[in-house]
Amino acid sequence: MGADYPTTDRNVPTRNPGRAHYDRTTVHAILDSGFLCHLGFVRDGAPVVLPTMYVRHGEQIYLHGSTGSRPMLAGRGEEGLPVCVTVTHVDALVLARSAMHHSLNYRSVMVHGTARAVTDTDHKAAVLDALVERVAPGRSQDIRPADARELAATALLRLELAEVSAKVREGGPNDDEEDLGLPHWSGIVPVRTVHGAPEPAADLDPSIPVPAYLDDLDRTLRTAAGR
Amino acid sequence: MGADYPTTDRNVPTRNPGRAHYDRTTVHAILDSGFLCHLGFVRDGAPVVLPTMYVRHGEQIYLHGSTGSRPMLAGRGEEGLPVCVTVTHVDALVLARSAMHHSLNYRSVMVHGTARAVTDTDHKAAVLDALVERVAPGRSQDIRPADARELAATALLRLELAEVSAKVREGGPNDDEEDLGLPHWSGIVPVRTVHGAPEPAADLDPSIPVPAYLDDLDRTLRTAAGR
Q1: Lowest mean per-residue pLDDT among A36-45, A97-106, B215-224
Q2: A208 CB near a chain B CB, below 8 Å?
Q3: CA pair distance A90, B57, nearest whole angstrom
Q4: Cα R_g (chain A), whole angstroms
Q5: How many CB atoms within 10 Å of residue A14?
Q6: Do the domain assignments include residue A40?
Q7: Which of A69, A84, A96 sits opposite B48 (nearest CB)?
Q8: In this structure, is residue B121 part of a structural domain?
Q9: Which of A196, B24, B99, B156 is most buried, most CB within 10 Å of its CB?
Q10: Contacts of B97 in chain A (CB under 8 A)
Q11: Which stretches of sequence are listed as region Disordered (chains A, B) (predicted)?
């Protein structure tokens, strides 16, 4: 998978640096387990954090927006848009014997960099397909593709995976030695994201069955079992 | 619940303004359905987005960190730390007949403002309890409370709910009229966050049973049923 991502003064956490990871395998796996990121940028000197759909392809992530939205407009400029993109999956509640050691098991990735608009129409069409596939594998072959007008109204930002870090907490509570004899239960409660049964649109022809690829959705859960 | 939050030039979305809500009931319900936010701030002119635990109390939200972390240090200054806090719950995949109308059902809240450190020890202890209760109701009565040293090592930021907006998408796909006859399935796939069975710590005395309040956890799921 290539060399690790380099460490910089802004991707080494000040807290729990032992939980930080810079290898591509870990980073890619976390990014590929989700489709919603939180996109941070600066507007008039103040921070803004927008929930945004994304998909990774190689060493790029692509962010989905509409042409009228603020970050998408800014990304079209020559200088691009400085961003921080963060993806977080919660895997468990960590319930320790002491209030202080309560925690969460989680996997997160933070990407710093400059986002730039994708302008090539074929490239946009391919990214839109990848976004649909990420959410529901198989779906991109069972839809009407975007036409030229729709592609023009779709804004996509591209961000290179260059300054990247992952942070992972796993395992049980880290109780203090002197608390081990206390009478309180200690352990973890797994947290999982699951898909419910598909619900057809009100205007759907009832002779159209639920597609088989939707039966496979549970294999694409964004929370890894066993963490 | 009091008057709506005021609209400002930065809490009215440029896209789909019809999905925006400013009433306290909607905003509080979304905030109270979660415990993980994404905290955005500016460092050396660039955006940073950190996954962070939070809890709402009245018209304040409290953010949890450690005394050494960057935003917590900055929040101790007289001027506080300008932040944007965003909370997002994904409720469903929205699968339309066209690529373009694929979407997500979600509920999100965005809070802009200046975060300030909580310094009073009793206040900190009360907020820590509230954080534990939010994650596992009943738990704060079944732990060793934080002592003075632990409270000193805990940093909490407070942010007033003043410049706030919610954004909600619900319902089925919005297919174009001319796509309604296409042979593609259309509808939603619910997405839910669920708790697994509690797993005791390796060092737990096996005579200590799983507490009854953990059986109630599923009532506290952060994803509302039926959305």
Answers
A1: B215-224
A2: yes
A3: 23
A4: 20
A5: 12
A6: yes
A7: A84
A8: yes
A9: B156
A10: 143-144
A11: 1-20
- List all residues of chain A from 133 to 172 with a beta carbon under 8 Å from chain B: 135-136, 139-140, 142-146, 150, 153-154, 172
Nearest CA in chain B to A91: B195
Read off the CATH number of the domain in which A66 is found: 2.30.110.10
Angle at B18 between CA B15 and CA B21, to 5 degrees: 105
Does A184 contact B85 at a Cβ distance shorter than 8 Å? no
Amino acid at A18: G
For B25-83, how does the pLDDT look when each residue is reduced to its tens digit (9 = 90+)?
999 999 999 999 999 999 999 999 999 999 999 999 999 976 667 777 777 778 899 99
Yes or no, beta carbons of A15 and B154 under 8 Å apart: no
DSSP A184-205: S--EEEEEEEEE---EE-TTS-
Closest chain A CA to residue B88: A51
H/E stretch holding B189 reads strand B187-195
Q: Work out the minimum CA distance from B165 to partner chain A, whole angstroms.
A: 12
Which residues in chain B touch residue A65, judged by CB atoms under 8 angstroms apart?
15
Residue B2 lies in a domain: no
A17–chain B Cβ distance below 8 A for any pair: no
User: Could you give the number of structural domains in chain A?
Assistant: 1
Question: DSSP letter string over B112-133?
Answer: EEEEEE---HHHHHHHHHHHHH
d(CA B83, CA B51): 13
Asked if residue A121 belongs to a domain, the reply is: yes
- Give A45-93 pLDDT, tens digit per residue: 999 999 999 999 999 999 997 666 777 777 777 889 999 999 999 999 9
Residue of B14, B36, B98, B100 to mutate when probing chain A, most A C-beta within 10 A:
B100
d(CA B121, CA B7): 35
DSSP string, chain A: --SPPPP-TTTS-SS-GGGEE--HHHHHHHHHT-SEEEEEEEETTEEEEEEEEEEEETTEEEEEEETTSHHHHHHTSTT-EEEEEEEEEEEEEEE-SBGGG-EEEEEEEEEEEEEEE---HHHHHHHHHHHHHHHSTTGGGSSBPP-HHHHHTEEEEEEESSEEEEEEE-SS----GGGTTSSS--EEEEEEEEE---EE-TTS-TTSPPPHHHHTGGGG-SSPTT-
Chain A residues with CB-CB distance to B36 below 8 A: 88, 90, 104, 106
Dihedral of CA atoms A172, A175, A177, A178 in degrees, nearest 10, equals -150
The predicted complex's ipTM stands at 0.92
